[in-house]
Amino acid sequence: MKTRFGGAIVYVPDAVATAAFYERAFGIERKFVSDGNDYCELQGDLPLGFVQEDFAQKSLPEFARNRPRAPAAGFEIALVSEDVDAAYKRAVAAGAAPVLEPQNKPWGQRVSYVRDLNGVLVEICSPWSTS
C-alpha cells in the first residue's frame, strides 16, 4: 500500500479566527467548520486545517505553540498566486506580518513571505514545477 500526502493541520489558539484571517488575507474560503469550532478546513486541492490547541492537547504530547513574537516554526504554508505582489499586499493589509517582500529567484519563481496572526510562516509564490 502506497502512502501519500493528504494535507496539513496547524494547531492554533482559535481555529475559527485563523480561518477567517486566511479568508481576508489570502482569499481562501472555509470548506468546513466542526460543530464545536475545534476544527476548520479551507478550500483547496489539498486540505489545510486548523485545530484548536486545547483540543489537540487532549490527544497529543506537548508541542511548540505558534506565536507571533516567537521564532517561526521550521515549516511554511506555501500559497501559489499568479500575482504575488498583489497577494502579498492584500495579506499585509489584512494584518499579516511582512517578512520578505516579493522578489524574483534565480530559478524563475517570484517569492514573498509573511507570518499569519499566529506567527506561522506563509510563503506567497508564483507557480513552480520540478518537471
Helix content: 10-25%
Kindly report the spatial arrangement of strands forming the biggest sheet. 1-4-3-2
* Portion in strands: 25-35%
Name the shape in a single word.
Answer: globular
CATH superfamily: 2,3-Dihydroxybiphenyl 1,2-Dioxygenase, domain 1
Care to count the β-strands? 8
How many strands, which pairing sense, and closed or not: the largest β-sheet?
A: 4 strands, mixed
Mean pLDDT across residues: 95
Q: In terms of per-residue confidence, which ranges show pLDDT below 50 for 5 or more consecutive residues? A: none
Domain VOC: 4-127
Pfam families: Glyoxalase
Organism: Sorangium cellulosum
InterPro entries: Glyas_Bleomycin-R_OHBP_Dase, Glyas_Fos-R_dOase_dom, VOC_core
Can you give a write-up of this model?
This protein has 131 residues and is an alpha/beta fold. It has helices at residues 15-26, 53-57, 84-93; strands spanning 8-12, 30-33, 39-42, 48-52, 77-80, 97-104, 110-115, 121-125. A hairpin with a 5-residue loop joins strand 2 and strand 3 (39-42). The mean pLDDT is 95.
